[in-house]
Amino acid sequence: MATQTKCATMDIARNIKQIRELKSYTQEYMAEQLGISQPSYAKIEQGATVLKIDRMQQIADILEVDLSTLLNTTNIFNIVFNAPATQSGYNNYNNMSNIDIEAIRKIIKDELQNQ
User: Fold this and answer.
1) 3-state DSSP call for residue 65?
2) Distances (CA, A) of 9 to 38, 49, 51
3) Closest C-alpha among 63, 95, 23, 40 to residue 71
């Protein structure tokens, strides 16, 4: 059971970080909005803090996404691109040499704003 909780916490932390980066928010901005220090916020993104549902909702509101987006254990890139996940939840995007990373970020950012 503890392993499942740890995995879920890491998935949520990964989702928060990815969405924050896609929206070009800093950790400092997020911490300020939450009324906590930047090091405390960093622990959230590292998965070192188990979040209560009300804190997750606050983060979702700041990121302007549904809470279900943070709770989704499928990698956010897989959601946007409808791509199948590997066992780790990540596809190997290093093999996508002809793709403009900034264009991908814009597509994901636009998709998140449309949710």
Assistant:
1) coil
2) 19, 8, 8
3) 63
Closest C-alpha to 69, from 19, 10, 6? 19
pTM of the model: 0.62
Rounded CA separation 52/61 (Å): 14
- Contact residues for 23 (Cβ-Cβ < 8 A; gap 6+): 63, 64, 109, 112
Neighbours of 91 (CB within 10 A): 16
User: pLDDT of 79-95, one tens digit each?
Assistant: 454 444 444 444 444 44
Give, rounded to a whole angstrom, the gap between the first and last alpha carbons of the chain: 32
The count of domains in the chain is 1
CATH number of the domain residue 35 falls in: 1.10.260.40
